[in-house]
Amino acid sequence: MAGVRRTDKRLWWLLGVAATVSVVWLLLTFWLVGYTLEADTRAVAWHLIGNSLVLVSLTWAIGMAAIAYGLKRWFDHWVTPSVQLAEEARVLLRTDVVRELRPKGNVETRDLAKLFNQLVAQREALRHEMDERVKEAAQNIEQERLRLAALMSELTQSVVVCNLDGRILLYNNRARMQFRAMSAAPRLADGAELIGIGRSIYTVFDRKLVVHALERVRQRLQRGAAQPVAQFVTTTKSGQLLRVQMAPVRAVQATEDNEAEGRLSGFVLMLENITRDLEQASERERLLMGLTEGSRAALANILMALEMLEYPDLKTPDRERFLGVVRAEVKAMSRRVKGLLDDTAASLTTRWPMEDMLGTDLTTAAVRRIEESLGLTVVEHISDAQLWLRIESYSILQALLYLAGRLQASFGVESVLLRLRPSAQGRQKAELDLAWTHAAGVTVEQVSGWDQQAMQTAQEVSSLSVQDVVERHAGAFWFEREQQGHGGCFRFLLPAVAAQEPSDSAAFVRNESRPEYYDFDLFRSTPASQALEDMPLTELAYTVFDTETTGLDPAQGDEIIQIGATRIFNGKLLKRECFDQLVDPGCIIPAASIPIHGITPDMVAGQPRITEVLPAFHAFAQDTVLVAHNAAFDMRFLQLKEQATGLMFDQPVLDTLLLSAVVHPNQDSHRLEAIAERFNVNVIGRHTAVGDAMVTAEVFLKLIPLLAEMGIQTLGQARAAAQQTYYARLKY
Known about the structure:
Elements: H1 6-36, H2 39-51, H3 53-94, H4 107-137, H5 139-154, E1 158-163, E2 168-171, H6 173-181, H7 207-222, E3 230-235, E4 241-250, H8 256-260, E5 264-273, H9 275-309, H10 316-350, E6 355-358, H11 359-374, E7 377-382, E8 388-391, H12 393-411, E9 415-422, E10 429-436, H13 444-447, E11 454-456, E12 461-465, H14 466-472, E13 476-481, E14 488-497, H15 505-509, E15 542-549, E16 560-569, E17 572-582, H16 594-597, H17 601-604, H18 610-620, E18 625-628, H19 631-639, H20 642-645, E19 653-655, H21 656-663, H22 672-678, H23 689-709, H24 715-722
Parallel strand pairs: 7-9, 15-18, 18-19
Antiparallel strand pairs: 1-2, 1-5, 3-4, 4-5, 6-8, 8-14, 9-10, 10-14, 11-12, 13-14, 15-16, 16-17
Helix pairs in contact: 1-3, 3-4, 9-10, 11-12, 21-23
């Protein structure tokens, strides 16, 4: 059975006191016999005691047994029912559980239970009245939320809202379907490891891209832009190409923290899958190139015909007429080919999101990137502070960083100059120079081919080359020697746009015409800034999971046949974000276990093996605390697969069985059904992995306030308290 309960400790303590008193009494009797009687009487007394020693011992043992039985009956009748009543009453007091306490024990305790039930009934009546008033007062807010939900669900574009830590706090159904379609293994738990409330957006997108876009939005917001948005294109792990547009979520009230962040509390991402568009464009390009090559062949044939027509025996009028026709056709075909090539070049550039960017913002970002990454000294020279560019800034910064790194590694360049000015070729072009000095002997031959190679720096590798970036912008790139000194420069010819007039920032900030739905708690959460062990239990993210297995002994070959999990974030159970996956165990499922979990061999036939499922579950549980009932059993199955999968579940683990023993040490059972009954939690789908995970999650949420009442508020405190219970000694 369970470990020693506190009431049992009191009982054994009283028995010990009684035994000690009786022994002292016997010793005192012997002392009186030995030192208070006369010699003759003492001898007779000792003789009588010696003859009756067995009787005395037996009498003492019977007396002690009677005392123990009496104390046990007294405890069972008076003390234990009172303690159990107090524990059950604490559940009703500290949680939202509503049920009647069962009277037990003595008459007074029974009366107390009845009185407590009456108080609970009165409290529930008052709570119901208050809930009705709150419900009536919050009706308008609920209508706004329903409108938002309807709007989000009907949007044909995928929308994801994140806080500044990149944690997802809102997404629509379109985004849910799109993310799961992007999963590298969508058939595993429906791709549930990619998206969810509280999960990091950086599991899907490169952090550098998002941070760079966020910086661009912040710069525009600080300048008072009317639409401070940024765009970027990225490739997912499954090979999907996404165009992402970012818009800011402004803070409701300016504080010292968000003022430093440009008054941002988060950002909105609008996603568009352009993979199919790219494939179609690639097909069009293939046809276009075929047409182009065919036209060139036709031109060659016409030119050959011209040569034939120039034979001297051909009559002059005929020769002139044929030559005129051929020349006209050649000119017409040349115009068509040139037009097709121009259209192709235009389509290649419009595939990537170009945005209008102030030139000073680009050079400032480039200075910071080069100095931080390479340690070079960078000087800016801007001839026109109002020069605007139409560029894809992330790839331009990659190109500048790559070229600066090559100069440093190949020629020992220690400082560079970033020079931006309007181009002499026209107002629609700008020249961006990456120049250097004090590096003698740099020739065209030495830097030849740099623009054709894939860009690579110490931090990252890109599949693009500098020439790809230039072609993307319909620009040009070349190397020039400086007329004075021993330096040179790489020059980019980039598209420029007319200067943009900034809008009134005050009007933008105070604009009330745009509805705001940003009253979410997650905007204020920054779990990355706090130590996990010191985090309050109410602020952590949890993955509550359960496994169904072929048997109870993983060391002897029993295997997992189902994994089910759900998530808790910000104190809320996210029932729709589930991981539910059957597993082919690769062995026989014992017939005796099928009635328990209901999983037959036909159900797991064709399902993925555990080596395929665990990576998806590992991603689903990433950055969360694991929670399970009798977690030692489930964790043992996972640990035995670490070598086969190369994955380690090294997150902190909480066990609802141990936590129940901490909160209710005097209860007779800590089985999941018994705990659920105490907390009035409906048990649905028992002995299915996801069903047990749901029940465990609801039980865990009921335990948190009871732990807090005992002074157990942080993760570290909960783990330490759980390890002190009897159940923590069980091993599998």
